[in-house]
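Quick question: what would this complex look like in 3D?
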Amino acid sequence: MKNKLIIGLTLLSLSGFAVAETPAEKGLRIAKQADASDAGFMDFTANMVMTLKNRAGKTSRRIIRIKTLEGHNDGDKSLSLFDEPADVKGTKMLTFSHGLKADDQWLYLPALKRVKRINSRNKSGPFMGSEFAFEDLGSQEVEKFTYNYLREEPCGAGNAWKCHVIERIPAYKYSGYTKQVSWIDSAEYRVTKVMYYDRKQALLKTLTTTGYQQYAGKHWRPAMMSMQNHQSGKSTTLQWSNYQFKTGLSNRDFNKKSLAR
Amino acid sequence: MNTQPFHVPKLALAASLGISLLSFTQTLHAADLSGNVSAEGRYFTSDPAHTGQQRDSNISVSLQPEWKHTWDKDKQQLTFTPFYRWDDNDKERTHADIRQLDYLKSQGDWEFQVGIGKKFWGVTESSHLVDIINQTDAVEGTDGEDKLGQPMLRASRLTENGSVDFFVLPYFRERTFAGSAGRFRQGMVVDTDASTYESSSKEKHVDYAVRWSESRDELDVGLSYFDGTSRDPNFTVGAKNGQAVLVPHYPLIQQVGLDLQHTTESIIWKLEAIHRRSKDMHYSAAVGGLEYSLPAITDSGAELSLLAEYHHDSRGEVATAPLQNDAFIGARLAMNDEASSELLAGGLYDLDNGTTSIRLEASRRVGNGLKLNLEAQVMTNVDANDPLNAFAKDDYLQLELQKFF
């Protein structure tokens, strides 16, 4: 009788441990689950049209093709080929993402046929004058943030999805943000919204991601990402198209030599 | 027994040439066309140093279209990039070149390239020592960064994040020089028709080069070896039409080059070093320094980097190259705005004789595919014996409008 009581009490306290997950732990767990849910994509390519809009409504466009290679025990590798505007056509950027270590980045300048390795100090700076900072577009490795689970609430088109709302603090020393709050759906880990808070802890921008479709039977990718800067009134949209998965890319295609072709 | 040599019927030859031309133009049609046309205006603040040189202003127009055809999942590529410049004052600056006409094939861990092309080697900003494959198109600009197309056969073996490249360079391009009406020249004009070579094969001498480059963690390294006709000529004094002229002489050399870059989040350390040997002499030269990126200086994300480099040439003050004991400091400002506005300002100071030159380069997009470039150079405290003395009266301001398509 006494043994059954001890076993029963032990079982109760064990289940108590499982429930008492801290918000930080829960946030990290979900971030890891989200990362794992996309594992196995091997490689994918996509076209991206970036449209910048200033406060007066004037727009300008950038067109970029992106190739991504899944990393194993390290971050992903990505190659961006610039097609528009015409003065940057032929420019290429190669990035090896890492977790806590700074990303490795090389830039190819077609006018000089020069491959230049650049440093990643100013990741908080805008990418091609848009409302997306380099750190927003780079591979969002799990280790780049510390997490804090906030709550669960409806989200997505028509509030049809249920989202985890997670606060994340960049580990990157020179990040432009003190914190970000992200909405990620609990069924398929699709990010629907991110709110960015600047160095003065004021709300700076909001990213809205829509048009998710599933590729290769597993991988969700958005068709549209829209970043609105609340302080400057400017906005940038990214329209993604022509996603192709498992195209047979390898490390060879992401060798810095392949930049100067 | 018929001992007559086999003659290719002229008709068959014409037909095969015709077919090649047809497939060439068909490829052009299938290819992507891009490129740029530029209009350049220069203003010189001083009167010229030598008789015959143009006075204060100059205009020039250039055209560089590029046809690129890629197929086989980007594994094969054909590129044709002709170039033409017309200069208002200097006949020698009006010139045409084929910058690129080559075929590239990627096969597994190998890459092959045959034709005319350009290869850039190097990591430093204020001068490029290891860059040797292409000849400098010196009439184009004062920074020596414009190059003539180089005929080459290349085979590269990809490594983990780099490659080993083997080059056969079968034809030599002579350097272009300003004519009598041109600025940026010595007192005597260079007579390019009278060039001499150490090699009896002259421009047909076949040169070789090998380069190993690799990237690991924070380090990018390159080691190169070149054996052939030096792209840098020596000069002797000759005569043409009763006038004293400079005659270029191209010696045979072997050169070992090293380029090294260490990149961390805020500081980049750079080094280029060469050792060059010829029949009569040998010397070493190096340039090294750093690039320091400040944290974002404005809320809009403008970036400022500070640069400092030091040059050393073992030949000391008798060096034919202008940078033998010189220091460079500069700053690069990237606004990261919609127009991609950028500014690079720097100064070179000769630690032996105090010759100073200050240079400014700025650019921004001013319309759809339209870019405005500003360039200015001022020289001060110029020592009469410094090789840069030739340009002492050539301080200039240049505005260039480029339309990209």
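Answer marked as accepted. Chain B touches chain A through 55 residues (CB under 8 Å).
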